[in-house]
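**Entry details**
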Amino acid sequence: MSENVTVSGWDVLDEAHRVLRATVAGVAAGGWNRPTPCTDWNATQVLQHAAGDQLGFAAAIVGDGWPTENPFAPTGVLAQDPIAYLNPHLDAAAAAWATVDKSAETAPTPLPLGPLPAWVGAGAAALDAAVHAWDIAVATGQPSPLTPELARSLMKVAVEIVEPLRAFAYAPAITTSATEDDVTTLLAYLGRRADWTA
């Protein structure tokens, strides 16, 4: 994995990009066709979707460079190494977010919600990257890339954006007990089971 990656300066987004890169790099040969928690998508399709979403966040900020393929209709076919495919998408998103002042009242996003408070927008991009890293990790036999600290940060964002997007991007929330850990709580809020297996 290349160390020459672009960082955004938004800590949660940079950490989410790091875990997505590490997860993609950790997929063993033959793992890209495995089923994932994203119904009807295999690991390759989740990667294409996640990469396309990051490009969408970048394009919303800079005004061009939109994905040429629909992130919500991934083909499942990659013409290059997965990391080589992913890196330019994450670099574009990081470079775009690096231009957004942390004190900015709002920032553009590709979400149906439109512009959001800048920290929420950067967090939304992070949420997308990190949760799809989890999808790929559990699909391919890797440990969860979500730490309790990252999950807590992402949960603050999730409560700001998920409910209006339930029918569009997130499954219904799964009921959990108050004693569940931070990662399980986040995943359940997003409609995912922490104990999912293929």
Q: What stands out?
A: The mean pLDDT is 95. The longest helix spans residues 118-139.
